[in-house]
Amino acid sequence: MEITLRATEFEPDERLKQRAQKKISRLGRYLPDLERADIELAVEPTRGVEARRIVRVNLIKDGKVFIRVERKAADHHAAVDAVVDTLKEQLLQYKEMRVDWRHNRRGRHEKELEEEKAEEEEAE
């Protein structure tokens, strides 16, 4: 997976660049056919003392934006962690949905509802 990193309104240090690229590159484990990840680091001016840090990530698959996530935090490291957690969750949901569809299985949500109904019936 090719990773491009772009920063607007500030110059990120090498440690931040490496951390963002390393964490995003690990997402290739969940969906190997991802072509590219575009990472954008930005600063949003606020009235407070500290400006908000923004991280946006676009995952490209088959030449189209597949998933887009944006997170804001007090620093870029926390925002990168939040973006990676959200992307991991979304990729796992996609992968599970795709597997369930292929095998003609019911989705996770339906299974959870049935388990809750069974537990309620046992409690009665």
- Which range does the strand content fall in? 25-35%
Rounded to the nearest angstrom, the radius of gyration is 19 Å
Number of helices: 3
Shape: extended
Instruction: Name the helicity range.
Output: 40-55%
How do the SSEs run, as a string of H and E? EHEEEHH
The domain tally reads 1
Fold-level CATH name: Double Stranded RNA Binding Domain
CATH homologous superfamily descriptor = Ribosome hibernation promotion factor-like
| Uncertain residue segments | none
**In which order are the strands of the major sheet placed?**
1-2-3-4
Major sheet details: 4 strands, mixed
Nearest-integer average pLDDT: 85
Give the class-level CATH name.
Alpha Beta
Topology:
Elements: E1 2-8, H1 14-25, E2 36-44, E3 52-61, E4 64-73, H2 76-102, H3 108-123
Parallel strand pairs: 1-2
Antiparallel strand pairs: 2-3, 3-4
Structure notes:
The chain is of the alpha+beta class and 124 residues long. It has one domain (2-89): Double Stranded RNA Binding Domain, CATH 3.30.160. The protein is 44% helix and 29% strand. The protein is built from 3 helices and 4 strands. The chain has helices spanning 14-25, 76-102, 108-123; strands spanning 2-8, 36-44, 52-61, 64-73. A 4-stranded mixed beta sheet has the order 1-2-3-4, with helices on one face. Strand 1 (2-8), helix 1 (14-25) and strand 2 form a beta-alpha-beta unit. Helix 1 packs parallel to helix 2. The longest helix has 27 residues, at 76-102.
